[in-house]
From TrEMBL:
InterPro entries: Crypto/Photolyase_FAD-like_sf, Crypto/Photolyase_N_sf, Cryptochr/Photolyase_FAD-bd, Cryptochrome/DNA_photolyase_1, DNA_photolyase_N, Rossmann-like_a/b/a_fold. This is Deoxyribodipyrimidine photo-lyase. GO terms for biological process: response to light stimulus. Keywords: Chromophore, FAD, Flavoprotein, Lyase. Binds 1 FAD per subunit. Signal peptide: none annotated. PROSITE patterns: PHR_CRY_ALPHA_BETA. GO terms for molecular function: deoxyribodipyrimidine photo-lyase activity; DNA binding; FAD binding. The record marks 318, 374, 397 as: Electron transfer via tryptophanyl radical. It comes from Miniimonas arenae. It comes from the Bacteria. Belongs to the DNA photolyase family.
Length: 479
């Protein structure tokens, strides 16, 4: 029987995984147990030092948990996950050679590093007379597929979303019953709980949530039962559990957006559902469309990961050197003296996640109140977010900074106090994350400078928003 390697990367799941079905020779096989063109499959994960060095302790710790869950699922099905550490261009052909696999199967990676790495791995495999087979991607519609009538990419979200909805996506594929997993061969590397992966778990720094596809599915089902019908109304409220929190599972591919979209379509077509549920379906689908829009944008313009798509202010408007470092340090530590901003940054540090509304406000504060370039903030987010994803992160930063595709205009500047009083109306979110303010009742917690005494340990405002807003607008006027 022919042998293949299933190289897991950003698809740490067994269900609805077309690349895995292709590896097992089951893609397109109608009967789940039918012999078809069956192969023996080796499950492989490569710990790539280049990617790990950029990930930060929280993301590495989450990867450890997720790999453990994947390994357990594969063991339950009779196989073993081989985990090797090293450059994939060397390691993948080495493992394929050792097990005598003709093909290595992956879900295509569209981000700049991943796409270049895969091309290099493909060349190395071809030199050994083996093939790299790409099936599916982390998206419902692969980046580059949705285009305007003239073949150009969309630069504005709303028409992209309309074309993306028109394009549609495939139905989820069945779970791979009866895959013939190969035992991990000698010399193929440690198991998922081996030394390489254990090193990932060192110094987790954050409370890592439960990882793996089972946990992702449970989170989604809980949200369908008890969140989607209020999503439209509550999703901007960081004081409530108003969003799905699936960004982490989507980032690691523990669940695929196609699985979510199929459930949304079913719910949307059910005429007995409440109007809240129908609004929730449309609004959640639209958020998934943003994820796909930004992936598409990064694929068309890989330099957008580092470079602004538009210049909004002259270069001399940004702070540099020690001023920049001091601004970044206070912001990252959640010690700006603006409670809504500080709560967000402390949530990020403690939980490796931040509510989306607060991501916008904290990012805006760094760029427009502290006059720090968006790239510095994006780098900090990428080190700390468990859902850190190059396309979503860099393009959302560019959106807030006004430098990206279909971005918020530069002159629309978030006011950290009014954002707080509007979206955290009772101050519960601030009190949860900023212990120095726990005894300040009600919405005044968003403006501690109005209290007779500043609560002990909480910093004075490091700047006056009204003044810095004007500085930002003046710089914009000079561009
Ligand atoms: C400055 C900044 C940085 C961000 N960095 C990231 C990042 O690194 N990784 C990441 O996944 N998201 C990022 N986002 C987008 C968004 O904030 C998160 O996806 C969302 O808050 C995650 O929470 P949730 O899963 O509960 O979202 P829900 O409201 O439940 O949304 C469902 C899903 O839709 C997608 N989504 C929602 N909003 C956006 C958006 N604005 N852009 C792209 N996709 C979206 C996510 O996959 C999310 O899981 C960033 C936003 C900002 C403003």
């Amino acid at each position: 029987m022919a042998r293949t390697v299933m190289w897991f990367r950003r698809d740490l799941r067994l269900a609805d995984n077309p690349a895995l079905l292709a590896a097992a020779g089951r893609l397109g096989t109608r009967e789940p147990g039918a012999p078809g063109d069956q192969r023996e499959v080796l499950a492989l994960y490569v710990l790539d030092p280049h990617l790990l060095s950029r990930a930060g302790a929280p993301r590495r710790a989450y990867l450890h948990e997720s790999l453990r869950a994947l390994a357990e699922a594969i063991e339950d099905a009779g196989g073993r996950l081989a985990v090797v550490t090293g450059d994939p261009v060397v390691e993948v052909p080495r493992v394929a050679n050792r097990v005598g696999a003709e093909e290595v199967h992956v879900a295509a990676d569209f981000a700049p590093y991943g796409a270049a790495r895969d091309d290099a791995v493909e060349q190395a495999l071809t030199a050994q007379d083996r093939r790299l087979v790409r099936t599916g991607s982390p998206y419902a519609v692969a980046p580059g597929r949705v285009r305007k009538g003239d073949g150009e990419p969309y630069r504005v979200f709303t028409p992209f979303r309309a074309a993306w909805l028109d394009h549609g996506w495939r139905a989820p594929v069945p779970a791979p019953d009866g895959v013939r997993w190969l035992e991990k061969p000698r010399g193929a590397g440690g198991a998922a709980d081996g030394e390489g992966t254990r090193a990932l778990a060192a110094r987790p720094d954050v409370d890592v949530p439960e990882a793996g596809e089972g946990a992702a599915r449970a989170l989604w089902e809980e949200f369908l039962d008890d969140g989607l019908d209020r999503y439209q109304q509550d999703r901007d409220r960081p004081d409530l559990a108003g969003t799905s929190r699936l960004s982490i599972a989507l980032r690691w591919g523990e669940i695929h957006p196609r699985t979510l979209l199929a459930d949304l379509t079913r719910l949307g077509q059910d005429g007995r559902r409440s109007s809240g549920m129908h609004d929730g379906v449309a609004s959640f689908r639209s958020e998934l469309a943003w994820r796909e829009f930004f992936a598409d944008a990064l694929w068309h313009t890989p330099t957008s990961a580092r470079t602004s798509l538009h210049a909004v202010v002259p270069e001399d408007a940004w702070v540099d050197g020690v001023d920049e470092d001091a601004a970044l340090e206070a912001w990252a530590a959640g010690r700006t003296g603006y409670p809504f901003v500080d709560a967000g940054m402390r949530q990020l540090a403690a939980a490796g996640w931040m509510h989306g509304r607060v991501r916008m406000v904290t990012a805006s504060f760094l760029v427009k109140d502290l006059h720090v370039r968006w790239q510095r903030g994006a780098r900090h987010f990428m080190r700390h977010l468990l859902d850190g994803d190059l396309a979503s992160n860099q393009h959302n930063w560019q959106w807030v900074a006004g430098t990206g595709l279909d971005a918020a205009p530069y002159f629309r500047i978030f006011n950290p106090v009014t954002q707080g009083t509007k979206f955290d109306p009772h101050g519960d979110y601030v009190r949860r994350w900023v212990p120095e303010l726990r005894d300040v009742p009600g919405a005044v917690v968003h403006e501690p400078w109005r209290l007779r005494e500043t609560p002990a340990g909480y910093p004075e405002r490091m700047l006056d928003h009204a003044v810095e807003r004007k500085v930002a607008l003046d710089a914009y006027g000079r561009r």
